[in-house]
Amino acid sequence: MTFKNLKEKFGPLVITLILGFAVACTSPPVNQPTPQPAPPIQDLDIAVGQTIYVPAYTKIYSSPRGQTLDLTVTLSIHNTDTDQPIFLTSIRYYDAQGSLVREYLDGPLQLAPLATADFYVEATTAASEGLGANFIVEWGAEQPVYEPVVEAIMIHADSTQGISFTSPGRVVNQLQSAED
Question: Among 34, 46, 142, 162, which is disulfide-ready with 157 (CB 3.0 to 4.6 Å)?
Answer without folding.
Answer: 162
